[in-house]
Amino acid sequence: DGLVVSEKVKSNNIDVKIPESELEAEEKGAEEERPRESDSNILDVSSDYPRDKHISIQRHLADLEKLADLREDERKPCPLCPEEKFKACYSHKLHRHLQNLHWKVSVEFEGYRMCICHLSCRPVKPNLVGDQTLSKMGAHYHCIICSATIVRRTDMIGHINRHVNKGETESRFITVRAPKSSYKVVEESATDVQVLPNHSTPQKTDSYFNPKMKLNRQLIFCALAVLAGERKPIECLDAFGATGIMGLQWAKHLRSSVKVTINDCNENSVTMIKENCHLNKMKVKLNIREEDKDETVGNGEENSDTIEVTKMDANVVMHLRSFDFIHLDPFGSSVNYLDSAFRNVRNLGIVSLTSTDISSLYAKAQHVALRHYGCNIVRTEYYKELAARTVIAAVTRAAARCNKGIEVLLAVALEHFVLVVVRVLRGPTPADDSAKKVRYLIHCQWCEERVFQKEGNMVEENPYQQLPCDCYGSMPGKTAVLLGPLWSGALFNTGFLRRMLMEAVQYGLDEAQSLLKTLVCEAECTTLKHFSTHSPADENKQEECGVYIKTPNTSAESYLVHGKRKSEEVLRSTAKRQRPEHNAEHPPFYYNIHRHSIKGMNMPKLNKFLNYLSEAGYRVSRTHFDPMGVRTNAPLAQFKTVLKKYSTPTYVGTQAEGPVHLPGEIHVGEEVPAATAIKVEEAELAEDDEPGVATAVFTQSYPTHCAAD
């Protein structure tokens, strides 16, 4: 009984023919029932059969007036307003009402006008005011594409634009493929993927593709390539495929070493993943599980060019199957998927997760970090490493609940993401050992000195005594804050990073190579000029989790994990017999050289300052967390002492970098210009003044060997 629109689609142009006989008005009872029946009757541009649309969606104002059947001698009600809002009136008044209240505030889309509707087809929450509130709040728009009802006009325009960007044209969000001309092909690491034009805006598209995450994808690929060298084949899962770029890179470069499964719960993304697989000449083994059907589509035989595509929730697919390598990259935090990830991951497998909720991890939204990670953090100079340790602590607790321990292989925190890669160790003993490394951090808010709380359950009388600084005794009130719980162990595994670097060189991943070199130096706490391709402690063997992995210089007698894993007794005995002597972990956290600079003094160059600290007997390296950060085991007081010693006053423009010279050490040249010479008589660090401020006394002296006038 509703208005029927017959459509004809030719090259995206819509020709609509509306029979005049169907535009006649029905009885009042039929008009009241029409909005209820038309909630799901939406214009379908892609279908070949007629579909009903809501009466508020018309092409011309005359079509809207025909619904009211305007006659000069009769009173007619408004077809888009209830009787309690607008009573029946004559044609001239109803014409002005339809034009001013409905037509002028309509939203246009492809020749149609979505007029505002005041009928009771939008549910309104009950209010004490009663029917008056219903009549005021019931105004809304009906979407021409889906069954949604939108209140505001600006929201309706944005809603339609999102449909256009996604290529959605069918009702109830059952989408069809956008025209081929609207796709954009992007190439990355010899892999082509087609994306929508708005692929970089996650709020407006389901197939989110961020070019800025290229470095993240390269690091994950290197980690998978290292695992593929240990045992073959390995089953790996990309739990949030989106465009499928990451899984396609795995299958295209590693070939028969991996069995790739790409999962996504969105139908648009699954369709795009399949198209991208065909674009890269990969066969698709489709396994879609929905509520009402369980269907498997694909080729019977599996080969190296076959990718399995699944459409289900990430938690479900990780509960149903076991994997050797799992990568989690949801939009935001990944804490909701950690329990499922560690449920069925195999022993000595790898779990990598990318967290993009940097507002909470970087202490901009501290309440969100407390809610998601159960961790209390504040903004510090080492906030990026604090974020990485926060994520690892959540990973450790999730693994321990499944009687699994972890060893952190890699932790990277950059501008857009926090990446953590861990190896899984099955058993209650590794789980207990990992859980013991989750501790609280004592952070001084005055000097930013920090130290992990000592192990043990006994309450200390004065926890401030654990801090190396004496701010608690010299400053009034409480000076420190308790942060955490955080991961207190190492953030890097040197052997794993070196093998990742070899894979990056082999596959030509230039962006990852420079970062991996920095990570290796950071893991060993050494400068880049001392960097070597092989470990100085043990050039032939690299140990990870008690397992020795063969490196290029390894002899045939070295232990190699290949195929099935060795028994725990063999691994334990080899670890006891051949554990390297030099296995010192890198010091936790770092200091920013600008944060502790001295007022009125020029700091030395960063590389020179690293040499000065190293000459003082401390371990030192740069860090990827902060370009001006220094990772060292020196206490903050010694750090500042060395920095003060080798800083130069700002007023000495020609003095070279080096320690501040005392008066007896100043050498005057033979020739001095006739102008006034400035000489430093005394340059001493004032112990009683504010820390970081140096005082100097200047005297003006004239040359004694100048010629007389």
Automatic annotation (TrEMBL):
C2H2-type domain: which residues? 143-163
Matching entries from InterPro entries are given as: SAM-dependent_MTases_sf, Trm1, tRNA_met_Trm1_C, Znf_C2H2_type
**Gene Ontology CC terms, in alphabetical order:** nucleolus
Give the UniProt subcellular location, in the record's own words: Nucleus, Nucleolus
- Keyword Zinc belongs to the record: yes
Locations of Basic and acidic residues compositional bias? 26-39
The UniProt annotation puts the region (Disordered) at 17-47
Signal sequence coordinates: none
Q: Which reaction does it catalyse?
A: guanosine(27) in tRNA(Tyr) + 2 S-adenosyl-L-methionine = N(2)-dimethylguanosine(27) in tRNA(Tyr) + 2 S-adenosyl-L-homocysteine + 2 H(+)
Q: Answer yes or no on keyword S-adenosyl-L-methionine.
A: yes
Record keywords:
Isopeptide bond, Metal-binding, Methyltransferase, Nucleus, Phosphoprotein, RNA-binding, S-adenosyl-L-methionine, Transferase, tRNA processing, tRNA-binding, Ubl conjugation, Zinc, Zinc-finger
Known SUPFAM superfamilies for this protein? Answer: S-adenosyl-L-methionine-dependent methyltransferases
* Record-stated family: Belongs to the class I-like SAM-binding methyltransferase superfamily. Trm1 family.
State the protein's name. tRNA (guanine(27)-N(2))-dimethyltransferase
Gene, per the UniProt record:
Trmt1l
